[in-house]
Amino acid sequence: MLKKIIMATFLLIGKSFIRLTEYLESHNHNFIVLVDSANNFSSKADTTYACDFSSIDNVIETAHKIDRLHNINGVIAIYENYVLPAAQIAKALKLPGLTIESAEACTDKEIMRNKFAAAPEKISPDFKLVSNKNDLIEFANQHQFPLILKPTNLVKSLLVTKANSMDQLVANYELTLGHIDEVYKKYAPNRQPKLLVEEFIHGSIHSVDAFIDKNGKVMVLDQVVDYETGQEIGFDDNFHYSRLLPSNLNQTDIDKIRHVAELGCRALGMTNSPAHIEIILSPDGPRVVEIGARNGGYRERMHDFANGIDIVGSALAIALGKEPDIKALRNDYCTVLEIFPKEEGIFVDIENDDKIRKLSTLVYYMKKVKTGALVGKASDGFKACAVIILHSTDENQFNEDSNYIRNNVSVKIA
Q: Are residues 264 and 321 in the same domain?
């Protein structure tokens, strides 16, 4: 029997992801998972270590121990909460990674906004850190409504609210304070809750992914993803309902978005990292909403189906200090849809579940909550009840199935 030749050994920080671990195994890579002992994460890894992530000294000590035993070649963090520890570990092990300063900027929107403000062009909205209600009112008196209130260091639109008046802004603030400790405890236990208020930028929402090499060279994908928000489909909520490839934008606007994405990555001083850049195309030009030092959610599936781009492989290459391959092989149709309820309730099922499964363009369908679970809006700290992905080379069939979901699929609650 031939001995398996191991290509590289990766240390996955904080949490693993089944699609990533399956990829690693199928490409003859080893992986070790370093989990936070404060959480009960399960892992498919043959070797899993745990430590207290609230102590960076403990994290570094454990990482050195793992490296001595397994000879780590690359460090990977695929969740926002672990980008900073991954940078600290990479530095300690003398492996490719973000600088600690850049990792802090990528995971805290206050620092991020300050970095963007120093860019050579205006690339982001005005903002203010909110320590109390007076901070909120002071900013509102100097800017026009609507305004956005959001945590500085959460993901997935959690606790993000939009206000069209002072009364609504203050009400949103008080409601957020009622949820914030619980949401951080669940999704970001090692982070200090912080809020900021910022200008609402009118325009369409888009994103693009990129990879940055050890010299700071930013390689932005040609493919821009279009978003549709919950508010655009009649929800009083700010989640991303759909993500779409290919973009409906013209090439001029795509080029402007890619240009601003590059400026944003440079402003954060990113190196040795993937990047996920969310952008609003305003009448005054593209504005960066935020940049995550990771691949975008669902992007490994979207770009695989639509473009034949190996997003996971590119992230691994960057973690090893190598160049990624982001050239598209095709330009098919693909969309990811996140299904939320319009109000809080007890989850029963997804409407027309059986018919969803029969759609000819369906390539992925997963219910994310169990029957009987409490579900609700993203702005109240809940995540999606289901995720649906469609892919096709046939535009007409793709649009027909997309419209079926839009008009007939919803969350049944009790």
A: yes
- The residues pairing with 11 across neighbouring beta strands, listed in sequence order, are 32, 75
Looking up residue 164, the CATH number of its domain turns out to be 3.30.1490.20
Residues 142-149: contacts with CB within 8 Å, 24+ apart? 143/199, 144/199, 145/169, 145/200, 146/200, 147/197, 147/198, 147/199, 147/200, 148/197, 148/198, 148/199, 148/200, 149/173, 149/176, 149/195, 149/196, 149/197
| Residue whose entry in the numeric block shows the structure tokens 């759609």 | 359
pLDDT per 10-residue tile (average), the chain, 414 residues:
72 88 94 84 68 92 96 94 95 98 93 94 92 94 94 80 94 92 82 89 96 97 97 90 98 98 98 97 95 94 98 96 96 98 97 98 97 94 95 98 97 96
| pTM of the complete model | 0.87
Closest CA to 362 of 386, 329, 384: 386
Cite the DSSP H helix spans in 320-357: 353-356
Where do runs of H (alpha helix) occur along 127-229? Answer: 133-142, 166-187
Q: What is the spatial distance between Cα 232 and Cα 326, in angstroms, rounded to a whole number? A: 31
